[in-house]
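Supplementary Methods S3. Input chains for the assembly prediction are listed below.
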Amino acid sequence: MSATVSPARMASSNPSESSRVEMEAWCPAGLLYLMGAAAGWLAIALALGFLDSLKFHAPGLLAGSSFWTYGRVHAAQNSALLYGFGVQAALGVGLWLLCRLGRTALAGPFVVFLGALVWNTAVTIGVLAILCGDNTGFESFEMPAICAPMLFGAYLLMGICALLTFHQRQPGPLYPSQWFVVGSLFWFPWIFSTAAILLLYTPVRGVLQAEIGWWYAHNLIWIFLGFSGLASGFYFIPKLLSRPLYSRQLAVMAFWMLAFFGSCGGIPDGAPLPSWIASVGVAGTVLTAIPMIAIAINFFQTARYNLNTLDANPTLRFTYVGLFFLFIAAAQQIVGALPQVSAITSLSWFGVAQRELFVLGFFGFSMFGAIYYIIPRLLRIDPETWCPYLLSAHFYLSAVGILISYAALLVGGIGQGILLADPGHSFVDVMRGTLTPLRVSTLGDLMLLAGTVVFLANFARVVGSWCCQCCMAMGKEGK
Amino acid sequence: MNSGPLLFLGLFAAMVFSWLGFVMEPQLQIGNLAQTNTVVVGDATSQTYPLAPSGDAHQGAEVYRANGCASCHTQMVRPAALGPDISHGWGVRRSVAEDYLFDQPVLLGSQRIGPDLANFGRRSDVIGILTRLYEPRILVPGSVMPSYRYMFEIRKIEGAKSTNALVLPDKIAPEAGYEVIPRPEARALAAYLLSLRKDGYLFEAPPPPLPKTNSAPAAAVKK
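Predicted structure tokens for the full assembly:
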């Protein structure tokens, strides 16, 4: 096994260009649906987030309607973001990577489509139920008990197809992206069923509910979404630079250390639990510094002499920026886990800023980078069909939006923590101190929303031009 | 790292590792907690702790959950070494696992846009709570808490004014001849918030030590 196996070589060596196109003729419907719906849900989530953000300017806004009260909109926004956008984007990109790297066709494309349909139905029901007041109360697991079996069933439909696709791969060494996709797809049903059973159907007693809720949310974001984003990075950077991955050994180490240590954590220090639980979490989180450094070295060494390609390729641009956000978010997570820091920053906007950077920044940018690459190949149309102006607008609006929102919330969070640590300040003073950063972050939220709407317009344009091509081709055949 | 089954086996091991540590072991350690007795402080007698909430408070907890109150309010007091919670008057002692035995679901929250509510019942009253729910900025100018007007009914006064009507400053009050009456969900929520008292001293959350003095304890002097 060579240490320098690259996806470029794997994808282009064996099957000829034409057979690769053949391979991808099968599954546009299911994957296109997953990716399109993901982007749609992201727009919904960002619109709900923008509404919530507006309430810091005018707390009396829509006060007469229970449907649009802050707490409900917040929960609905979080569910739309994680389950509507996060899981679907991860599945869409992950399934495509499994096909491409395994040099095989998607197993059961119809089942994937069906799974996506059920999944979207369940998320729609869940988000509406939350707005009507049926919220479980657990952060990142807000959708009511009725949605859990639908979500789980839909996931199994798609997950089994992923497993079969992985199983029918061409023999040969596994590429790091495959580990990360498999790890991510494998993780979700375990944590989701644990949370559903122990929080909703046979709830554990007392404060353990909160503990399991935190553990679930941490694993959903850091392992499930994190592994998906990394899978995309590990594929596209070497592939688009036509360079081998710098070190497979570093990737192996990072993968296992992240799986073991990254899955421990998420419990705030000082929570009403035996203190070893939070301490183990702190230890696990601090140890993720090692795999994060390994990943940074690996990507940097791979891309080192090729940073000038940044402008040329939208996928690379999104992926690089996404990884940049990952390293900031990871550094913040590690520093914020230290007890001396968390005494000040925990339970403040600090954590919200960090999560936003991870989910919308790292994961979101990685997924959009992948989607810009995948969709033209899925539909067998020219990648130039993406309108370059809309694409740039999406990139800059999102990147600047994230940075504004993140910086504002980070400053607000640290300020909130420092003021609160001084008993001389009343809580009302502290809260007033955070208002300016919060109001600034509204601008970032609006830019993110605008960026996603621009993406949807571009997406509609590409799918529309694909439909025209199909119609013309069918017309010619008819004559 | 080229064998599918080995990859799955490794991932399964990692998953089990995390699951045993964060789901199984905590359940074994504190999954079977039961009511206990408070530590005797001074002249007080020991009491059963915690007590089951009243029916009203139980319904109010559902209102609290449904409206996502936990997205802005936590219900946990961190120990003095790990945060300034106690010095802000949010509790007399840190919160411990026993405090939540009767909560279903347990809504600890994860962010403090508003103050911690673990002991809100110790520092509030029903009129204050209802007024705040209707218009938070009457009592706390500049507050960003939403108004929960949908939990109140504005109705025409027929005959005498209702004793349940909110007393509001002129700026906020409805037009003459109308009054603001809390709906059942507002009353239940107020009952729940008043029931929030996580303050029984327990073995693992003892009362603060008495200040050190040079004089002998009072009881010894009497003898």
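DSSP finds 16 helices and no strands in chain A. The radius of gyration of chain A is 22 Å.
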